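This entry is listed below:
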Amino acid sequence: MKILFLGDVSNFHNTLAHALRSAGHECVVASMANSWQRIAGDIDISREDGILGTAKFAAKLPFLLAKMCGYDIVHFINPHFLSLKPNKLAQVLAFLKQHNRYLFYSACCTDYDYLSTCHDGSTFRYSDFLLGDKPSPYVESHEWTQHNHWDNPEVVNYHHHFINNMDGIVACLYEYFVSYKNQSIPLAYAGIPIDTDAFKPRYIESEPQKVRFFIGIQRQKTILKGADRLLYAAQRITERYPQLCELAIAESVPFKEYVNLMSSSHVILDQLYSYTPATNALMAMAQGMIAVSGAEPEYYDFIGETTNRPIINVSPLTEDDIYNKLEWIVLNKSQLPALSRASREFVVKHNDSRIVAQKHIDFWNKIITK
C-alpha cells in the first residue's frame, strides 16, 4: 500500500513508517521539522511565526497538497494536522478525502473526545485534567488558561467534522481507546511502535552502587505531564540518599539528544497522570531501563499481560506514593537487574514496531475489504 502519515509526535509515525517500509509498503511522513523535537520527515509542513511566516506557508501550501494526493491511506496524527484555523483545516480535509482512498486517525494526542472522557468523573480515577473529583495542577495553573481552546464552538464543531470523516481510528494508548470505544467509527488498538532493533540492550547486569534516575522536562508540558511532581520526589530522594542515587535531567532538548542522555541511566521517570507507559518510558525499557510511569491494572488487563508487569506504577493521588516508590527502588536496587531484563522483554512483546505495524495492516485491510 501507499501510505501518507500526516504529522508526527515523539517519532511515532516515523517509527511506524520504517517498519511498514520493511514489510514492503511505500510510506511518506509529513512533519513539522521546526518543532522543538526536530523530528525529520519526508515532507516539511512547518509554519514559521509572524506575518512573513504566514505568507510563506500560504505560498507553499498548494505545493504541499500536491504531494499529498494518490495514497491508499492517509493517517493523521492530530485533527489539527496543519498550522491552520479550523475552517481552513476543514477545506484541506475535504481535499485530502477527495484525492486519496481512505483516511485514518492515530489517536495519540489530546483531543476533544479524550478531554471529555477525562472530565466525565467516572471513566478514570485520575488524568491530566482531574485527580479524583479535584482539578489537576495543570487545570489550576495559568497554562491551562493559555492552552485551553477545546470549549471554543468552532474547534468543537471541527473536531466532530474531522472524526466523522475518518474511515477508522487506531488508538496508541489504553486511555485513547476507551475515549473512542462508544463512537460509531471503526476502532482498533495497536500500541506505540518502538524500533527495538535500534535500541541495543544495556542491561543492568549487577546491583549498581548508585541508582541513576533520569527525567526529561518539556517546558510546555511540565505541569501537564506531572514532571514537576516527579522531579520534586526524585530530588527529595537524592537529597536523603546521596550515596545511593543520583539524578540526571534533560530539559527541552531535541529528540536524538534526549535519547542519548537517557541511555546512561537506570530508571526513567515519565508520565505521572497516565494509566499507560508512553513513548519515552517504552524507549527506555527497550534499552533495559526501569520505568517509573503509568501502568495501572486496567492497562495490563487490556493488553492481556498477566505475568510480566515490570513498570513501577505511581499514583498521582498522593505525594507519598511517588516518594515511597522511588525510595523502594533505592533500597531494593538489588532487584534492578531482573527488572531490567523484564522491561526489555515487555517492550519486545507488546510494542515492537513490526508488531504494531502488523496491527495497523490488519485493521486497514479489515476496513478496505468491507
About this structure: The first strand starts at residue 2 and ends at 6. The chain is about 45% helix and 15% strand.
